[in-house]
Amino acid sequence: MTAYAHSIGSKTYRFGSLKELMAKASPARSGDFLAGIAASDDTERVAAQMALAEVPLKTFLNEALVAYEQDEVTRLIIDEHDAVAFAPVAHLTVGDFRNWLLSDAADGASLTALAPGLTPEMAAAVSKIMRNQDLILVARKCRVVTRFRNTIGLEGRLSTRLQPNDPTDDPAGIAASIVDGLMYGSGDAVIGINPASDSIASVMTLVQMLDASIAHYRIPTQSCVLCHVTTTIEAINRGAPVDLVFQSIAGTEAANAGFGISLRVLDEARDAALSLKRGTVGDNVMYFETGQGSALSANAHHGIDQQTCEARAYAVARKYRPLLVNTVVGFIGPEYLYDGKQIIRAGLEDHFCGKLLGLPMGCDVCYTNHAEADQNDMDVLLTVLAVAGVTYIMGVPGADDIMLNYQTTSFHDALYVRKVLGLKPAPEFEAWLHSVGIFEPGDTPRLAKRLPQPFQRVLAKLS
Amino acid sequence: MPMEPVTADLWQQLRQYSRARIALGHAGTSLPTRPHLEFQFAHARARDAVHHRLDAQNLHMAIAQRGHEVMLLHSAAKDRHIYLQRPDLGRRLDDASRQVLDARAAARQGECELAFMIADGLSAIAIQENALPFLDAMLPRLAGEGWLDAPIVVVEQGRVAVGDEVGQVLRARLVVILIGERPGLSAPDSMGIYLTYQPAIGAADASRNCISNVRRDGLSYELAAHKLFYLISEARRRKLTGVALKDEAEVAPQCLTAPGRNILVETGDQADLAAYRHG
Question: Of A153, A183, A211, B262, which has the fewest Cβ atoms less than 10 A away?
Fold first, then answer.
């Protein structure tokens, strides 16, 4: 194992291994302190960043952070690395790579071509020496477009997942939140329910209800019930009309085992979803969620810092050409991301790394009540992510998810950020919003004063 | 002509189907002042619950008045700031507490049946509001069986797993811990109850049973006590807790069987629209 050192004046800082160097170079966050791998003070952290800037990118191909023999995620990263795509930056150090990313040589086309040549560790390493504005500027240059029943990720667009969760999986309660969301123009990324119960019967009911609703109102979007992947496979086997297969994923084989999954199970799930051929404009059928700290919480981090573990999850995600990937950045709690500052930084890192690796990266801009964070922090993260070109965000009624008991972005929040930055929904969905009469004609989102015709009759019956 | 700045939503009737914050209306496209400040209040209440300090002395007195021996202990997380960032410290006793408990265990010798514990967890308010009314529903049930043969232990800045250390030191066959759950916007005062058979430091979470949402407007004290008594009886009989016990202990299962219908789609409309499947 190579050791690293960096001298500033008379003081020499030593780092025993590449993963120690990565961990100590990571901007401060509670999860790395909890793991006992963070820099001991700010000067050691910057010294580590200086040492990391000198590391050639090629090093990451030769020095695996988790042994190749021990971890299928490492094998995936190494075996599927595209050396030809890597060639344009193969001679660079991490520090030079940052400069290159900021330069005009890195544009949409060159970044798209480069993505298969980058490993998650390279993306994580360069992110550690980037300021927030660097993460925004470079992510904004990346363009990742995916399709199922609409087109997600085009320039000038921001999509939303309509998240109509209900603590008892009651279809009436879920439908009420769906109407609320649709009337505010939410739901082009997906209408996706986190079920309270993972039971197959309950999941089947919800999948069928979403299918019927999307068909009834002819909404150009897709549905997903975010149960365990094995439950979705079973639902498909029983004939459920599944659009997207969901799974939470992490960056090590052991952490994925903690989620009850492996690459083999994900292969099987994607094949099952593809066999249904339900996409009309594309076949991106997978939806993944990630989040810093998941590997540590499963005691499966192998001494690797949480941001690098997170980036490794993106290697898993990109193998399956997903329609959507989002980090659930503030959900895990203050022992991993303590406050608004750490959550905002992590959100920008995750979005940058995901985009750089070629993923349709969204973000669940969120926090829990025991984190030192509030709505103002979420406003900042939402705004900077939208400037960075985030693919999609969540939408829940009034920012309050009554099933998962956390706060994420509301339908109103999405309209705020669309308004201030001139962002529109996916084009097919935008056309639907106008044709149904949810949005008034025009370029800025204005909500119609009258109840849209298709919803008039059904609502009248419920009065 | 001046326009009303706030537009009410035209689907108020949907509020009967959901507790979600739907039909809030809009000012421009933003949240109107009233729902905005209602949200801020709910969050402030939840934040206060997280940072509220448990009045352990008062709790001690109240339990002692009910004729039970009480011990006041503290976790290794010395304050809330550390507690929130170091879950590992909230799972262990501090040195002074450990010594006190060791001494108490040495004095009694032998095993005990059931150790009962109370910890603030993430909401001391949940404990202050619910612990005593719950004990009043629960303790008479236990007294009849003679199972509760250890002091009731109160731990400040404690997490669920601190019960493993306490149970291990007391050589308890079963440990019950009442703990404040993470406050939500709608309920900052929800208490959880965890039951662990043969508690030992490092026990897996899958080896516990949990009764959640115990509070005045949630699961009632009587029903929670009924459930816990059932779980304790079964755990003693089958010599285990956790996943294997869970399925059969659902005496009054929360409704997860989709009681409502999809109000978005009228029954009569299903056929004529079934043809439409996106191209």
Answer: A211
